[in-house]
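Recap from last week: sequence in, structure out.
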Amino acid sequence: MPAACKGKHIASFAFTEPGTGSDPKQISSTAVKEGDHYVINGTKRFISNGTYPSSLVRFAKDAESDYMDMVRTGRCRKN
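Predicted structure tokens:
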């Protein structure tokens, strides 16, 4: 993420979900903290700049508190 903030990389942005559009109150993707990382579950419809190999900012709700936040990652990981 630091490289994207300095303008050296282009970050991707994943917010919109099927059936909810861009309404932040309707986000259904969840993030569950497991140790020192998060497990993200959900589907995104559009990912702005998704073809760039850099950081990805995804929005999800904390599974325990239902609080929405963004999850910043430098790479995607499959479980």
